[in-house]
């Protein structure tokens, strides 16, 4: 569905993406993990047209989308969310979601109706007329999901949709994401917190210092020594392995 | 629909004003108010709904005014045709300014300053070329016939203006109730988030500046036909730009009725001050400036913010969310 | 094509005018660099400074250059009060609000001046008003040469203040890292107001140096506003050296375009530069993202 091939991007001397290639399969939940500053968000920004890669190409639904604008990419059915959730402050939850709905719906009334429908689906049905700026963090994350969903997307890229939520809030949001998958929407998650995506995603890529260092099903990936070192620092993999041995 | 009905009632009321106010002095005031409301609503389309604060709306106003005047005086073109041409010429100027700013991602204060610079460039040009009468200005010959878009009575001018203002307010209403308006406001509130949802930010802003320019240009046409004289300072000077932004800021930017409210308050204040203090030069401008400072300091949402007029506003109460409470119990359960 | 005998004096004249633009722009760039706000009232405040020099000279016979010990400190106090009392409270998170509030202030200041000082254009008469200095065969008015030198001295003093004093260090810290600076105990509001005051004090210096060769009326500041912005944008927002070079450059551009295009069209060159620079090289020349 989405093919990223050999993407590289540098800011001055910092190489934010180094020859990254990955293929997101249709209909699945996949994820991209990595420690802070690994270049996950930069990669997302390149895939969704907010940044132009220095080299490499991106294909979506079989077509080359490298270098086209974010709005055009959204029209083709790929929607991203933002790590720092950015509601249209001063507008109601309903109005916020309707902006997404308007991508496919011209009529204001129908877009508002659709917004209401989507809001109920993600659990914001009771807060439709509230100013989006006064939502809690968890509420804003739901709003972000709702706005994306309202565009009838084929693929949603979630940038740390679970970050900043407490465990019970995470448990509340996970079914919402699973429901999206049931509707046939492909999902790519960026997460910093590994545990959160373990239960959700079927396949995961690990990014460190701009380059992919591992990929596979999550339970294999997290025991990969390279991944552990990337997260916890040099030598940790060995120590953990030793401790496992002595305990076992 | 409720706001549309209110709009209809207000404009119906405004339509009969000439039958009520028979004195020329009062009619003059009514014309000035409606004229300010038109300019203010034009600014509001871009500044209020679009969040792009222009400091140079005189660029559109002056272009509309000069177009109708120059076409008449230099080329003998009928001012009714000039009226349309004036609006369209302002749209062209708007498109040029919009292209050269939005294309290159100019926002905020920089957009404001560049619009101001454009207006200054036009002022200097109109001050330097023959066709506009240069610094001397241009005088439209008096010939008070309807076919010449000049009238002996104020009421006829008033109704022309009323029609222009009605059109502007209908467009503003449409902005508050359409996909275009929703997308424009989304861009205003967060451009990146809007683009991520497929809103074509550049195109939306271009449409907004062109609509805004059109109505500002119509205001210029009206001015030219009403006062029959223009010079570079009147047409492209900063006072028009300031009036255009002051009116909606006082009334409430991004609201349908804000510009009308602002226009009433502004002219009300200058009338009252004239009665109290007398005709001191610059005194109403001192009051305007003070009002601008006070509004920005204490009432950034304008007077309409007090009444929540014309914008079915979202409740401001913070969320007493179930997420929070469930979160607390959730954590307790985890511990 | 006019020959060099016309161009050289024109360029020299442009340089001296440009130095005055640089002086006005120094204050603007300082304020921008620290507070990240655009002070639209800059021209109106310059006008107030010019009136101060005018009245000190005509009422009390104080030489404009002696006014340098009176007007800049007074302007500093005014700037401090304005920032602390009004401008600092107007942002509400949008930089356009600062622009609006300073626009409001400039309207008030200009029209109050119109009321108190009347609309007449005034000049002062000093023994050296018509003295000239010969440089490269061109005759330049002495006050303009003094202003030229004064601009460099002012820029140098500002640089010293910023790099060698505690206040300068606090200002720089705040400009760079607002949160961090507050955490280490810098009183942000006070330092912001000090910076704004300094920027306005620069206008006081400019007024003292400008008045002997210039004039004053309530609208005089308007002409300086966009020019000063152009200088600041051209030289890089927040850069003193940039303001100096930008000012001189704009002065020369104005003089030459006046020479070739005529007096009234001449100013178009400046605005064209302003628009083009903002559109095409904002990040490069501003040194930060617009």
Structure keywords:
heterotrimer; A: about 250 residues; alpha/beta; six-stranded mixed sheet; 10 helices; 10 strands; C: about 290 residues; mainly alpha; 13 helices; about 75% helix; about 5% strand; globular; disordered C terminus
Question: In summary, what is this structure?
Answer:
Chain B is mostly helical and 335 residues long. Chain B has helices spanning 2-15, 17-20, 24-47, 58-75, 79-102, 108-128, 154-176, 179-189, 191-196, 201-227, 232-236, 238-251, 258-277, 283-298, 304-307, 322-334; strands at 138-139, 229-230. Chain B has one domain.
Explain what this protein looks like in three dimensions.
The complex is a heterotrimer of chains A (248), B (335) and C (290). With 248 residues, chain A is of the alpha/beta class. Chain A has ten helices and ten strands. Chain B is mostly helical and 335 residues long. Chain B has one domain (2-236). In chain B, α3 (24-47) crosses α12 (238-251) and α4 (58-75) packs across α10. Chain B starts with a helix and ends with a helix. Chains B and C meet through α6, α12 and α14 of B and α4, α9 and α12 of C.
Structural class of chain A: alpha/beta
Q: Main β-sheet of chain A, in a few words?
A: 6 strands, mixed
List low-confidence stretches of chain C.
283-290
How many strand segments of chain A? 10
* Distance between the first and last residues' Cα of chain A: 43 Å
Distance between the termini of chain C: 40 Å
Major sheet: arrangement of strands of chain C: 1-2
Mean residue pLDDT of chain C: 86
Biggest protein-protein interface? B-C, 43 and 42 residues
- Helix and strand sequence of chain C: HHHHEEHHHHHHHHH
Biggest sheet of chain A: strands side by side, in what order? 6-7-8-3-9-10
Main beta sheet strand tally, sense and closure of chain C: 2 strands, antiparallel
What's the structural blueprint in terms of helices and strands?
The complex is a heterotrimer of chains A (248), B (335) and C (290).
Chain A: E1 2-11, E2 14-24, E3 29-33, H1 40-47, E4 55-60, E5 63-64, H2 70-75, E6 78-80, H3 93-101, H4 108-122, H5 137-149, E7 155-159, H6 167-182, E8 186-191, H7 194-198, E9 203-208, E10 211-216, H8 218-221, H9 225-232, H10 236-247
Parallel strand pairs in A: 3-8, 3-9, 6-7, 7-8
Antiparallel strand pairs in A: 1-2, 1-4, 4-5, 9-10
Chain B: H1 2-15, H2 17-20, H3 24-47, H4 58-75, H5 79-102, H6 108-128, E1 138-139, H7 154-176, H8 179-189, H9 191-196, H10 201-227, E2 229-230, H11 232-236, H12 238-251, H13 258-277, H14 283-298, H15 304-307, H16 322-334
Antiparallel strand pairs in B: 1-2
Helix pairs in contact in B: 1-7, 3-7, 3-10, 3-12, 3-13, 4-5, 4-6, 4-10, 5-10, 7-10, 8-10, 12-13, 13-14
Chain C: H1 4-35, H2 42-60, H3 71-85, H4 95-117, E1 132-135, E2 138-141, H5 142-164, H6 166-176, H7 178-183, H8 188-210, H9 220-235, H10 240-261, H11 263-266, H12 268-280, H13 282-286
Antiparallel strand pairs in C: 1-2
Helix pairs in contact in C: 1-5, 1-8, 1-9, 1-10, 2-4, 2-8, 2-9, 3-8, 5-6, 5-8, 6-8, 9-10, 9-12
């Amino acid at each position: 569905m989405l093919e990223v091939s050999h993407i590289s991007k540098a800011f001055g001397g910092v190489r934010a993406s180094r020859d990254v290639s990955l293929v997101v399969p249709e209909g699945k939940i996949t994820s991209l993990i990595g420690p802070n500053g690994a270049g996950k968000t930069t990669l997302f920004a390149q895939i969704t047209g907010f940044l132009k890669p220095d080299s490499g190409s991106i294909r979506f639904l079989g077509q080359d989308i490298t270098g086209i604008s974010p709005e055009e990419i959204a029209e083709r059915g790929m929607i991203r969310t933002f790590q720092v959730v950015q509601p249209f402050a001063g507008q109601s939850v309903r109005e916020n979601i309707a902006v997404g709905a308007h991508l496919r719906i011209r009529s204001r009334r129908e877009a508002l109706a659709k917004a209401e429908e989507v809001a109920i689906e993600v659990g914001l049905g009771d807060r439709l007329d509230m100013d989006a700026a006064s939502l809690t963090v968890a509420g804003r994350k739901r709003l972000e999901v709702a706005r994306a969903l309202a565009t009838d997307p084929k693929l949603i890229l979630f940038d740390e949709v679970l970050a900043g939520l407490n465990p019970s809030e995470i448990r509340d949001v996970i079914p919402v994401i699973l429901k999206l998958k049931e509707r046939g929407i492909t999902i790519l998650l960026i997460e910093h917190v590994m545990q959160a995506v373990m239960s959700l995603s079927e396949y995961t890529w690990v990014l460190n210092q701009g380059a992919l260092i591992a990929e596979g099903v999550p339970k294999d990936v997290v025991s990969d020594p390279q991944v552990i070192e990337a997260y916890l620092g040099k030598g940790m993999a060995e120590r953990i392995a030793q401790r496992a041995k002595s305990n076992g | 629909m409720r706001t549309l009905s209110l709009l209809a009632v207000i404009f119906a009321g405004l339509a009969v004003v000439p039958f009520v106010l028979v004195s020329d002095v009062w009619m003059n005031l009514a014309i000035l108010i409606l004229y300010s409301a038109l300019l203010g609503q034009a600014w509001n389309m871009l500044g209020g709904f679009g969040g792009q604060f222009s400091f140079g709306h005189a660029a559109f106003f002056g272009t509309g005014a000069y177009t109708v005047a120059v076409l008449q005086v230099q080329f003998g073109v009928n001012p009714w045709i000039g009226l349309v041409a004036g609006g369209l010429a302002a749209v062209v100027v708007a498109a040029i300014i919009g292209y050269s700013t939005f294309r290159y991602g100019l926002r905020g204060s920089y957009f404001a300053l560049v619009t101001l610079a454009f207006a200054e460039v036009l002022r200097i040009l109109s001050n330097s070329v023959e066709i506009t009468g240069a610094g001397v200005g241009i005088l439209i010959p008096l010939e008070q016939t309807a076919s010449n878009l000049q009238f002996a009575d104020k009421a006829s001018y008033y109704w022309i203006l009323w029609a222009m203002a009605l059109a502007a307010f209908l467009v503003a209403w449409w902005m508050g109730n359409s996909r275009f308006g929703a997308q424009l406001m989304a861009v205003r509130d967060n451009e990146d988030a809007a683009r991520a949802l497929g809103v074509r930010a550049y195109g939306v802003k271009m449409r907004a500046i062109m609509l805004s320019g059109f109505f500002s240009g119509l205001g210029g046409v009206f001015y030219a036909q009403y006062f029959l004289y223009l010079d570079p300072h009147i047409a492209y000077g900063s006072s028009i730009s300031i009036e255009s932004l002051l009116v909606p800021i006082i009334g409430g930017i991004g609201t349908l009725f804000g510009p009308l409210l602002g226009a009433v308050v502004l002219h009300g204040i200058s009338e009252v001050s004239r009665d109290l203090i007398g005709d001191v030069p610059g005194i109403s401008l001192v009051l305007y400036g003070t009002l601008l400072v006070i509004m920005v300091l204490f009432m950034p949402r304008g007077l309409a913010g007090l009444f929540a007029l014309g914008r079915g506003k979202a409740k401001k109460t913070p969320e007493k969310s179930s997420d929070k409470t469930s979160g607390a119990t959730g954590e307790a359960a985890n511990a | 094509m006019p020959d060099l005998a016309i161009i050289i004096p024109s360029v020299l004249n442009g340089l001296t005018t440009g130095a005055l633009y640089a002086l006005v722009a120094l204050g603007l760039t300082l304020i921008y660099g620290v507070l990240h706000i655009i002070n639209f009232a800059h021209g109106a405040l310059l006008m107030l400074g010019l009136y101060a020099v005018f009245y000190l000279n005509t009422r009390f016979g104080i030489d404009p250059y002696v006014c340098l010990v009176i007007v800049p400190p007074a302007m500093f106090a005014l700037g401090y009060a304005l920032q602390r009392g009004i401008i600092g409270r107007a942002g509400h998170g949008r930089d356009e609000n600062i622009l609006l509030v300073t626009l409001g202030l400039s309207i008030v200041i200009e029209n109050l001046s119109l009321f108190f000082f009347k609309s007449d254009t005034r000049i002062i008469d000093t023994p050296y008003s018509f003295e000239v200095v010969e440089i490269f065969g061109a005759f330049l008015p002495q006050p303009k040469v003094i202003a030229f030198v004064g601009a460099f001295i002012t820029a140098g003093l500002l640089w010293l203040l910023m790099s060698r004093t505690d206040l300068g260090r606090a200002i720089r810290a705040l400009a760079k890292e607002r949160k961090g600076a507050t955490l280490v105990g810098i009183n942000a509001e006070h330092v912001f107001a000090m910076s704004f005051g300094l920027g306005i004090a620069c206008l006081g210096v400019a007024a003292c140096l400008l008045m002997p060769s210039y004039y004053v009326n309530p609208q005089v500041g308007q002409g300086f506003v966009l020019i000063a912005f152009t200088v600041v944008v051209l030289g890089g927002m927040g850069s003193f050296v940039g303001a100096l070079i930008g000012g001189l450059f704009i002065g020369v551009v104005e003089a030459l375009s006046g020479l070739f295009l005529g007096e009234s069209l001449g100013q178009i060159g400046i605005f064209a530069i302003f628009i083009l620079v903002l559109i095409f090289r904002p990040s490069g020349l501003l040194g930060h993202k617009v």
